[in-house]
Amino acid sequence: MTDHPTKLSAHSVNLWFGNKHVLKDVSVTFPRNQITALIGPSGCGKSTLLRCFNRMHDLSPDARITGEFLLDNQNLYDHGISVTQVRRRVGMVFQRANPFPKSIYENINYGLKINHIPKTERQGIIENALKESYIWDEVKDELQKPATRLSGGQQQRLCIARTVALRPEVILMDEPCSALDPLSTLKIEELIVKLKKDYTIVIVTHNMQQAQRIADKTIFMYLGEVVEAGDTKALFEHPQQEMTANYVRGRFG
Amino acid sequence: MQLPVRENIDKTVRLLVRSTGFLAIAILGGILFMLLWNTMAFFLQIKPLDFITGTQWNPSGDPALYGILPLLVSTSLVTLGAMVIAIPLGIGTAAFLSEYAGSKLKGILKPAIEMLAAVPSVAIGFLGIVLLGPGIAGLTGQSNGLNALNGAVLLAIMALPTIVTVAEDALHGIPDSYKEASYGVGANRWQTLIRVTIPAAAPGILAAVMLGVGRAIGETMTVLMATGNASAFPKGFFHSVRTITATIAIEMGEVPYQTTHYYSLFAIATVLFLFTLIVNMLGEYFVNKYRKYHSA
For all residues of chain B together, what is the average pLDDT? Predict the structure, then answer.
């Protein structure tokens, strides 16, 4: 792990929704070009934590956040940092595939337009992003088709393509396979593993096998706190905490 | 309860429900039949070409003239003017309510706008005469402000609640996941609204606009009071106009039964009906066109 310096980190983070204390003094680090899995039972705050990193909570008026979020030693919540820039550097793939109700082509083109990428470059970027996301062969002849006609797995790969088209530095994934069948899940997992050479990836998952298959590092959270973090193999085979052991062995959660 | 009794109740209810359904269709058919029947009687006496191309509507003149063009232009002028005002205002208000206003403000604003729909059209027309009319007259230096612009502004006010309410529902119904996806690639609120939320809500917004147009075309009392009703060919927004609806309302009460003039009013009513039919069908067409991007 030593050859993978920290890319993204959170320090002493607390988050409240109204009066509800959702994240309690959370500190985590995510190494560059590695896949880190966030696991834990429902409601443990892992998705909430994930969404902090591209400031999705800015949209909920009752969310209150303290602590530091660093991307390359730059605080993501500093005044003077534009939230749209943060979201461009830290991309997100959501739990349910959410393509825009537009054509396949336009789904990727949208982000490029928003970020003022010149028209002449877009065609190439779109093709590249679709190839990178291993969906090009399936859609190259029907780029003008509505994206909503694709299968669930294809939609999710399109959403990943939409994210990588912008060349973010970090990709956050919020249970990207939870609504997919095993075959589509496998394809997405292969894709995620291939993406890690270019991106730092953080993935929230409920699927313990998935974490073991793809993650280099795993963080176990419970009731808004980080219980244990470490190399995936070590965490699953020799958990240091009893709670971690119980969870990864399927005794609760 | 015994089985035969329950079955009989079931049968009776089915019959009852079915007959109410058919009643609506029968009434609609009856109206259509009456319109077309009387329109035919009109065209037996007046050549359709004269009706369509005539530039003067003067049934009590000698000779009597039945040119629908001035009425058609009047109705189009007022409706178009109303839509030019009401559509941007309505969609803007809906977008503000759904995307920007806090829940408290929305809780006050939305019912207030809906209340606007409950104001009787005669009261709106009254406003046009005593408030808007003199205002327009003062600004343009005319002797009175009873003209197409006056009617258009009033109709816009009347169409607003419909457009705002329906469009706001449409915008509000767009799943957060679309917006999140847009924010996720770095779009700001405005970009998300213009490029994702509004296009996604387009069917609902179009429906809102069509309902608004329908309201404006068919409205009678307000335009009757506010537009001056001059029968001369309309020259523009600052001139008095006389819409199809106002003409029917004014002349129907005084026309002798089953004369050419009487039939002519049915003929222009049929034209009005075709107008609204086309508007509705266009709306339906666009709604379906956008819908294909939504269904999975």
Answer: 91
One-letter amino acid of B206:
L
Please tell me the predicted confidence (pLDDT) of residue B285: 82
Per-domain boundaries in chain A: 6-96+172-248
How far is B208 from chain A, CA to nearest CA, in Å? 20
**What is the side-by-side strand order in the sheet with A20-31?**
A20-31, A6-17, A63-71, A74-75
Which residues of chain A fall short of a pLDDT of 70? 1-2, 253
Task: Dig out the tokens for B248 from the structure.
Answer: 């029917």
**B293 and A148 in contact by Cβ < 8 A?**
yes
Q: What is the pLDDT of residues B35-85, one digit of tens each?
A: 999 999 999 999 999 999 999 999 988 889 999 999 999 999 999 999 999
**Residue B296 is assigned to a structural domain of this protein:** no
For testing contact with chain B, the best of A81, A84, A173 (most B CBs within 10 A): A84
Contacts of B199 in chain A (CB under 8 A): 101-102
Integer Rg of chain A from CA? 18
Three-state secondary-structure class, residue B212: helix
Nearest neighbour of B186 by CB, restricted to A94, A146, A166 = A166
Q: What is the pLDDT of residue B194?
A: 93
B53 within some domain: no
- The whole-number pLDDT of residue A59 equals 81
* Exposed/middle/buried for residue A79 (C-beta within 10 Å: 0-12, 13-18, 19+): exposed
Class of the A6-96+172-248 domain? alpha beta
Count how many pairs of residues, chain A against chain B, have C-beta atoms within 8 Å. Answer: 78
Residue A170: per-residue pLDDT: 95
* CB pair distance less than 8 Å for A100 and B188: no
Residues 6+ apart with CB under 8 A from B287: B203, B206, B207
CB atoms A100 and B187 under 8 Å = no
Name, in order, each residue with C-beta under 8 angstroms of A143's C-beta and a sequence gap of 6 or more: A103, A104, A105
In a domain, B66, yes or no: yes
Chain A contact set for B202 (CB, 8 A)? none
* pLDDT (tens digit per residue) in B226-274: 999 988 899 889 999 999 999 999 999 889 998 999 999 999 999 999 9
Of residues A98, A103, A115, nearest to B181 (C-beta): A98
At B122, which CATH number?
A: 1.10.3720.10
> B9 and B106: one domain?
no
What does the pLDDT read at residue A1? 46
pLDDT at B171 over 70: yes
Whose CA is closest to B267, among B94, B68, B127, B103?
Answer: B68
Residue among B204, B175, B196, B189 at smallest CA distance from A97: B175
Print the domain residue range for B22. 3-45
